[in-house]
# Entry
Amino acid sequence: MSRLLEYVRLMRLDRPIGFWLLLWPALWALWISGEGHPDERVFVIFVAGAFLMRAAGCVINDYADRKVDPHVRRTAERPLARGTVSPREALALFAVLAAGAVALIIPLARQTQVLALAGGAVAVIYPFLKRFFPLPQGWLGLAFAWSVPMAFAEQAGGVPVVAWCLFFAALFWTVAFDTEYAMVDREDDLKLGVRSSAILFGRADRMVVALLHLASIALLAVVGGSSALGRWYWLGLGAAAVLVAWQLWLIRDRDPAACFRAFLNNNYFGLSVFAGIALDYLFR
# Structure
């Protein structure tokens, strides 16, 4: 049982925030590409895929960071950092999760399968970029937004302009919230030579986060107009904008605990946008 609990912690099943942040853009895209009625089979596949890919991403991330995490206050208690799970076990668990994710895409269209495999490669590469790439959060944004073109390819038969607007909205949003997350570890990362957007942006970090959020909301507004979404959507987007204002207030002093609270608050941002989309289609 203790071994199983260590695997649960390695996959971060005890901390589902990452799963939700990965899932929200997929749900946005599924509802819009399905015009409010996503295919049930596709919905199940995408939700299960988000679960497996988030778990696999956490495992490979901790494998890549196994020599760094023991020296970072926030990550020192992770299973690989403490040595309660071996690197070989972690790789085996990652292989099982990745195989499960690949099996899920078998019933999907060929274009969706190609996109899914490319997205999987993006996700696997991300943890290893932090040693040399100055903006790993940008790469993570690609991984988190990749479900958007997949959903449109599967349900709409292609990836129209509105899908790319939604893709970049999700990408900018991800870079914004992961920069808030990176602000928590900035001092430790500087000592260890780990790259992050918080380090790259320096004293301009709060302004860049604000601009990224603004760009995301602006693109979501374009999506709403292009998709003829009505008042429920705009109410949801308005609520999301209020949440962004709250996050910017939280990070004003760059206090690590407050920055982490701002990061967690993004779950409600994703929920607000999705609620607006779902309710608008429901009450038509």
